[in-house]
Amino acid sequence: MGGWNAMSFDGKDNLLRVVRSEAEQFFALVDDDASWRAPTGAGHWQVRDVVAHLVDTTEAYFIGFDAARSGHELPAAYGLPGMAERVDQRALALRDVPRPELVARLRQDFDRMSEILDALGPDDWAGLTVAHFYMGPLPAFFYPAFQLMDYGVHSWDVRQGTGRAHGLAGDAADLLVPFMFVLWQATTGNLEPCELGIRITSGPNAGDTRVRVGPDGMDYASGSVDDLESVLEFDPGSFVLTAFGRSNAGTIRGDRAVADRYLNLFFRI
């Protein structure tokens, strides 16, 4: 899998390449007075609120990396159930910052974050633990993946607000596929038992995954899904957008009731 497994150091250069590409497109989309107050696909947020959210998010990453390098202990994680409300408040608090000032701040934040990620070596990639404000301690490789979610998914949000037909870039979607299982695992709100298969139909991370939800949460592992009564099939882009709650996509093979139950287990962040 090599450069398409972003959880491995072998995937670093490819992941950072795609992050830079998505960020450049994002800045081109938002740095315009005509679009600054336009709607987006992120609920009630306007374009300016998405920019503000990325400022808030990225600057929280700096605190985590500074603490990881210095050995400073941070407070316990805030938790994901309250994330949506808090990030909304913090984004709207920056709503009236002028566009040139806020975009310049985000560009500076992106450059600083890029320097941090560029400097990660093979021992750091999975060996350096960095506290995430909402999720708690995570391996460092999650942070370039978060940057890809930040710029890739939120670029989709900005395009969605234009009302024009569009899609998610293939390289971004392919790299994010493995992280969507982690996202689902972390946002399982209803622990009603179920078991089904997830099939990613294309791209370098295509394959079958067995998923089980029980009293202790969600577990998943690669493996044949042929014996399961329900299988959900996704292309990479549809999988990412469904996991993020941006669309209701996927093809149900088998028992619809099981698939419906599973797809409605999660809370949105």
* Largest sheet features: 5 strands, mixed
Secondary-structure arrangement, i.e. CATH architecture of the largest domain? Up-down Bundle
Number of helical stretches of at least 4 residues: 9
**N-to-C SSE string, H for helix and E for strand:** HHHHHEEHHEEEEHEH
- Which stretches of 5+ consecutive residues score pLDDT under 50? none
What is the helix content?
40-55%
Give the structural class: alpha+beta
The Rg value, from CA coordinates, equals 18 Å
Shape: globular
Total beta-strand segments: 7
CATH class of the largest domain: Mainly Alpha
Task: Give a short overview.
The chain has nine helices and seven strands. It has 269 residues and is an alpha+beta fold. It has two domains: 2-163, Four Helix Bundle (Hemerythrin (Met), subunit A), CATH 1.20.120.450; 176-263, SCP2 sterol-binding domain (Nonspecific Lipid-transfer Protein, Chain A), CATH 3.30.1050.
Model description:
With 269 residues, this protein is of the alpha+beta class. The chain has 2 domains: 2-163, Four Helix Bundle (Hemerythrin (Met), subunit A) (Up-down Bundle), CATH 1.20.120; 176-263, Nonspecific Lipid-transfer Protein, Chain A, CATH 3.30.1050.10. It is built from 9 helices and 7 strands; from the N terminus they run H-H-H-H-H-E-E-H-H-E-E-E-E-H-E-H. The chain has helices at 12-30, 47-70, 83-92, 99-118, 122-127, 142-160, 170-186, 236-243, 256-263, and strands at 129-132, 136-139, 194-200, 207-214, 217-222, 230-234, 251-254. Strands 5-4-3-6-7 form a 5-stranded mixed beta sheet. It has a two-stranded antiparallel sheet with strand order 1-2. The relative contact order is 0.14. The mean pLDDT is 97. Residues 20-159 form the Mycothiol-dependent maleylpyruvate isomerase metal-binding domain.
